[in-house]
Design goal:
The chain is α/β, with parallel strands linked by helices and 259 residues long. It has a single domain, classed as Metallo-beta-lactamase, Chain A, CATH 3.60.15. Helices cover 28% and strands 26% of the residues. It is built from 9 helices and 14 strands. It has a 7-stranded mixed β-sheet with strand order 6-5-4-3-2-1-14. It has a 7-stranded mixed β-sheet with strand order 7-8-9-10-11-12-13. Helix 8 runs parallel beside helix 9. The longest helix is centred in the last third of the chain and has 14 residues. The chain is globular. The termini are close together. The mean pLDDT is 97.
Length: 259
């Protein structure tokens, strides 16, 4: 299978999980044109997507949803409370709007949604089970809950938030109220917290991790990777073999092929 992070960050998020015969897009926070272009670059047409999953209603996760769904009439899955907060809901074809169950199948993939701590109405992450593999989407986490830890345990690959460097955030240009929000229980996960989380969960012999949803003001890919790597090494994790880190970007595709 392949994971293609088309865009990740505060300006927009979209990730394609490609399981061969089943293709799932998580979030549509960039324009339809960018989604079309990004998918074309990896040899996929938008019409091949079997479903779009929405983590929550913030603009950077649904910005392109209106045009994308009206143009391609793809099925969209979101929790009921989330649908109530999506501004373009009533513009979308009724048959495309599907209320997400906690556990459901999409093509050959079993999907489990799990609640996360973020300042949205009913935000979720996802576990995807395909053949013998487990793959996880977990971003926009104000704090790490037991549900998040359980979701990440024994996964083959994950897209995990590593949003900010705390020093950069504290000393950066954000107003106090925004710094407080980002640091808060319903905000975003720091590099240090991402590293600590990965260091303590039960893992398979090999796990691939995208460090995602980086703040463009308070982080950068090299720093996120360096910080997480240092914490893993301090906890006797072989970063090159046991746990392999991948960078993501707001304006470029990051891809991984997993067995």
């Amino acid at each position: 299978m392949q994971i293609n992070v088309l865009a990740s960050g505060s300006t927009g998020n979209a990730t394609l999980f490609d399981f061969g015969k089943t293709k799932i897009l998580v979030d549509a926070g960039i324009s339809t044109r960018r989604i079309e272009k990004g998918l074309a670059g990896i040899g996929i047409r938008v019409g091949e997507i079997d479903g779009v999953l929405i983590t929550h209603e913030h603009t950077d996760h649904i910005k392109g949803l209106d045009v994308l769904i009206r143009r391609y009439r793809l099925p969209v899955y979101a929790r009921g409370n989330t649908w109530d907060r999506i501004p373009c809901r009533d513009k979308l074809p009724a048959e495309c709007r599907i209320e997400m169950k906690d556990i459901f199948d999409l093509g050959a993939v079993k999907i489990e949604s799990f609640s996360i701590s973020h300042d949205a109405i009913d935000p979720v992450g996802f576990c995807f089970y395909h053949r013998q593999g487990k793959y996880v989407m977990a971003t926009d986490l104000g704090t790490v809950t037991e549900a998040v830890e359980r979701a990440l345990e024994m996964s083959d690959a994950a897209v995990l938030e590593s949003n900010h460097d705390l020093k950069m955030l504290n000393e950066g240009p954000y107003p106090f109220f925004l710094k407080k929000r980002v640091r808060g229980q319903e905000g975003h996960l720091s590099n240090v917290d991402a590293g600590k989380l990965l260091s303590r969960i039960s893992r398979k012999n090999k796990m691939q991790v995208f460090l995602a949803h980086l703040s463009q003001q308070n982080n950068y890919p090299e720093l996120a990777e360096k910080t997480v790597k240092q914490i893993l090494l301090q906890n006797n994790c072989d970063v090159e073999k046991e746990l392999i880190l991948h960078r993501t970007y707001p304006d470029a595709i990051a891809s991984l092929t997993s067995q």
